[in-house]
Amino acid sequence: MSIHISAAPGDIAPFVLLPGDPLRARHVAEAYFEEPTCVNQTRGMVGFTGVYGGKPVSIQGTGMGVPSIAIYATELVREYGVRTLIRVGTCGAFQPDMAIGDVILAQAACTDSNVNQLRFGGRDFAPCADFGLLQGAWNAASERGLSVRVGPVLCSDSFYQDVEDPWGIWQRHGVLAIEMESTALYTIAAAHGVRALSILTVSDQLVSGERATPEQRQTQFMSMVEVALSLL
Ligand code: HPA
After folding, report:
1. How far is ligand 1, taken at its centre, from the CA of residue 196, in Å?
2. Is residue 215 left, alpha or beta, with left meaning phi > 0 and alpha meaning psi from -120 to 50?
3. Which of 32, 129, 153, 173 matches a 20 to 30 Å C-alpha distance to 224?
């Protein structure tokens, strides 16, 4: 049991999927896991453990943003011995040639957050994905015929921006999309010598203003989860 996770020691598998939305954690566990058991209910941020393809697997909601995922990732690794953390989330596409439903494998995570400036005493750390997971996810997504891109994302502390052209500088440097968690995930994984990858589905096309319908969100989310589970 940790401060934010009430699971007993041994109740969480070494391989954990991390959606932001706890309701998605429940949905995935019920749809894909054999014998899904709810192992955490603290703050309604539910987590489940079950079996997939004969192997133990867990899924834990993280909430939105760097501070929230940092709490769950840290406790999962330190208190429960988790070795592989796969974020499955949504993102807003920065580039005009990307469509709703495209899968992005976040090779690296730029950020406007100050957390790593604090951690590294004002110096820059380059948070990046585990290469083996990245390669495996690329192969799995390609085999499924998904439209998949690999590249850097921006992990932002702000969903709503009040300044003019907040994303232009990132777009001009080839950053594929915006989300709000991967810098923390990759940094915490690096700090503990464990593997991490963010698999993201485009839910918002920020150049055209298009947004995914609820139906698109559901089916596309499950495609990404299947890619993630193939890494188990
Ligand atoms: N901004 C930040 N995070 C996101 C977005 C967005 O537009 N869409 C999905 N995650």
Report:
1. 20
2. alpha
3. 173
The domain segmentation of the chain, as residue ranges, is 15-230
Tokens (6 digits) for 205: 């096309």
Q: Are 95 and 204 in contact (CB under 8 A)?
A: no
Q: Whose CA is nearest to atom 6 of ligand 1?
A: 92
Angle at which helices 214-229 and 22-32 cross, to 10°: 60
Question: Ligand 1, atom 1: nearest CA belongs to which residue?
Answer: 159
Asked if residue 215 has pLDDT above 90, the reply is no
pTM over 0.85: yes
Q: Is the pLDDT of residue 217 over 90?
A: no
| Ligand 1 midpoint to CA 158 (Å) | 9
Q: Tens digit of pLDDT for each residue in 110-130?
A: 999 999 999 999 999 999 999
Residue 218: pLDDT band with limits 50, 70, 90: confident
204 catalytic? Reply is: yes
